[in-house]
Design brief:
- The protein is of the alpha/beta class.
- It is built from twelve helices and 15 strands.
- The chain is globular.
- About 45% of the residues are buried.
Amino acid sequence: MENIKKLIGESFLDLAKALETGEFGKIKVGITLLGSELGLDNILKGAEMAALDGVEVILIGPKIDTNLEIIEVDSEKEAHQKMEQLIDSGYISGAVTMHYNFDIGVATVGRVITPALGKEMLISTTTGASDTERTASMFKNAVYGIMAAKAIGIKKPSVGILNVDNARGVERSLKQLKENGYDLTFAESGRSDGGSVMRGNDLLQGSADVMVTDSLTGNIMMKVFSSYTTGGSVESLGFGYGPGIGFDTKRIINILSRASGTPVVANAIKYVRDLVKGNLIKIIKAEKKALTKAGFFDILEELKVKQSPQTNTEAFKMPDKEVVTADITGIDILDLEPAVESLLRAGIYAESGMGCTGPIILINQGKVAKAKEILGENKYI
């Protein structure tokens, strides 16, 4: 009887805690096992470390000796399909994976530990492409970073813009957004002249909660922050390249590098856990509403008109949509949309996308040779 009373008492305490925190049971996070340069065991150990920290980790990959639940698949492609199904069905709340292609408009927000003060900082963005125009993409990256920051519990994240090409244009656009009523807090550089445009010193010091940059620069920064203690061979620090965020994102999918070591694997899983607890998807919807009210999309359109070169405005018949399973790489991000249009004008259906190594054009498998010929003639590849 005493044991039963104790059990009932513990159950009520657990229920009270759940009602207070909003957490009912462990959060289930999936992770795909295939694709790491460091082997299956490296991913498994990271998953087991995260499980010790209270995450219910679901493995997706080949059979392996572990006490964790595993859903068996034989390839990376099948793993990604199964991962998406598990998220959409609600069996898992989010996932971590490698070498996953996001649509244009979606980019990832990385999370690092800065060396000077041991402070966490979000780098927005680190893979993917939020837009094909540089200033427009960094403008989007700023709000994507704010969304991720709020989801991990930073109520008023400070935003700094890394001093790269187009930084001043991004700063002007963000100031206009703030003047329009959007709740935005600018970070202050640690250098004596201050300002919200960040120097290299600010990267090391973590002067901003959200450091805004273009994806390629952000990708390099992630690699340096993650592996400077190992000489670059293994990424041993930080939380990985983060969730793919876009205005219509419905899945929490975080990205790891193929060189991510065990500690980063564990932290990436916990990063997903934090985003689920903070309800990233709900925050994206709320921020989109606030941004619309503050004229974000009008400012964005003005930026794109300003940046867009004069293109062929002659009307053409759109080819019928086809299944696109092959991809063509080696195209500059600034040439991506004109390159796609050159194929559409030639009667070949094509779509733009972003792989882990850069921009891609998605094409029907049977039309790759002809498409490459057209792209070559137009000097896109």
